[in-house]
Amino acid sequence: MGFTARENVLASLNFEGPQWIPRETWMLPWAHQNLKDTTEEIRERYPDDFLWTGGVYQNSPRKNGDPYSIGSSTDEWGCVFTNIHKGIHGEIKDPILKDLNQWQEAVRPPYELLPADEVSARDIINRKCHETDLFTRASCNPRPWERYQFLRGSEEAMMDLMEPEDGVMDVIHAIHEFHLKELEFWVTTDVDSISFMDDWGSQTSLLISPTLWRELFKPLYQDYCDLAHSHGKKVFMHSDGFIQDIYPDLVEIGVDALNSQLFVMDMEKLASMAKGKLTFWGEIDRQHVLSAKDPQVGRDAVRKVSQHLYDPKGGVMAQYELSPGSHGATALAIHDEWGSVHSENSHSDENENAVSHA
Fold first, then answer.
1. Which residue from 269, 232, 259, 279 is spatially nearest to 21, judged by alpha carbons?
2. d(CA 221, CA 241)
3. How many CA atoms lie within 13 A of 231 on its CB side?
4. 34-43, 263-272, 280-289, 347-356: lowest mean pLDDT where?
5. Distance CA 330, CA 293 (A)
6. Residue 185 and residue 125: Cα distance in Å, rounded?
7. Per CATH, which fold does 5-356 belong to?
8. In Å, how far are 38, 178, 252, 301 from 257, measured between CA atoms?
9. Left if phi > 0, otherwise alpha if psi is -120 to 50, otherwise beta: which for 153?
10. Bridge partners of 52?
11. DSSP string covering 8-42, please?
12. Residue 287 · residue 241 · CB < 8 Å
């Protein structure tokens, strides 16, 4: 009997032998505008195995504008983004937290967003979960470090961490407490998982020392993992850049699936630290692979990941992001090749089983 998508994802996360490699393709609005035929073909041939549930948050009077359109937009925290490219997200140009001594006036977590009637909201989410065979995720995405940067500005945020002064940890904790409040609602629903994110790497190193990261941020992520696991939920995390130095920490705190830029790190080293301990939730390189016009580059990239990280028992997901510069033929070749990898290994397992029972 075949697995549902939910059962297949769980089989991969639990290293219990998925029937196919779980799939997820992230598509920025740019992709729908510029690669329409590709996005439609992917949705038809390689549909996602995941569903983000939602529709229960309140409107925020602070939020306005479209962050993916040219111009300015304001998010629910009051942070103003400026965008000069249609189809991708804008950037902070004028942070609202200019003086840490004034953080209590400037930092106002958007508690007004949270469901006013949690019972009704929970019923809505649970109904969505029961009506789908897809693996479901909570529609919130805690990001304490990135939120701090949005409030403070990236340059000032980095300086704050190097020489913390009064207010720095107060702001981080205010952000963290809001995210915990969000998650406390979501873990009481029937979603299969929660997710959080923070981009911690440059192309060659961690943005801060591993020691400082462990002191300031690891405890926050531990809280998210502990809360989720105490309610039987899986934990997904995304972090761009070179984060190899904290991979063991993410395994230790209980991250079940990690989305990271595998191609800027040493995959052999990552395998030694994390293979069989967490699921590599993508990704195939956006900078040099998806931007290649030759589909063979995509196929070779899949083979490199599979060589180091794939196991028929699970632990790998076919994930990437279609963003500016991506080529449709290469994107499709990546999905095709993941199917070939799994098919070849499945047949190999069947032959080994036949020999062992002969």
1. 279
2. 18
3. 19
4. 347-356
5. 7
6. 11
7. TIM Barrel (3.20.20)
8. 27, 23, 13, 20
9. left
10. 137
11. HHHHHHTTS--SS--EEEEE-HHHHHH-HHHHHHH
12. no
- Written as six digits, the tokens of 34 are 């510029």
Dist CA 227 CA 35 (whole Å): 39
**pLDDT (mean) for 212-229:** 97
Alpha-carbon torsion, ordered 25, 5, 22, 135, to 10 deg: 70
Query: What's the token pair of residue 119?
Result: 């019972």
How many other C-beta atoms can be found within 10 angstroms of the C-beta atom of residue 166? Answer: 9
Question: Which residues pair with residue 83 across a beta bridge?
Answer: 71
**What residue type is 350 in one-letter code?**
E
Q: How far apart, in whole angstroms, are the C-alpha atoms of residue 289 and residue 281? A: 17
Pairwise CA distance, residues 357 & 21, whole Å: 26
Mean of pLDDT values over 48-70: 91
* Pairwise CA distance, residues 93 & 271, whole Å: 39
How would you write 220-287 as a 3-class SS string?
HHHHHHHHHHHCCCEEEEEECCCCHHHHHHHHHHCCCEEEECHHHCCHHHHHHHHECCEEEECCCCCC
Mean pLDDT score, 159-183: 93
Ramachandran angles phi, psi of 319, nearest 5°:
-135, 140
Q: How far is CA 280 from CA 3, 4, 47, 203, 238, in A?
A: 21, 20, 19, 19, 10
| Percent helix / strand / coil, the chain, rounded to 5 | 45, 15, 40
Is pLDDT of 80 > 70? yes
Q: What is the pLDDT of residue 348?
A: 53
pLDDT tops 50 at residue 32: yes
Q: Which long-range contacts link 290-293 to residues 24+ away (Cβ below 8 Å)?
A: 290/320, 290/321, 290/322, 290/323, 290/325, 290/326, 290/327, 290/330, 290/331, 290/334, 291/325, 291/326, 291/327, 291/330, 292/327, 292/330, 293/327, 293/329, 293/330
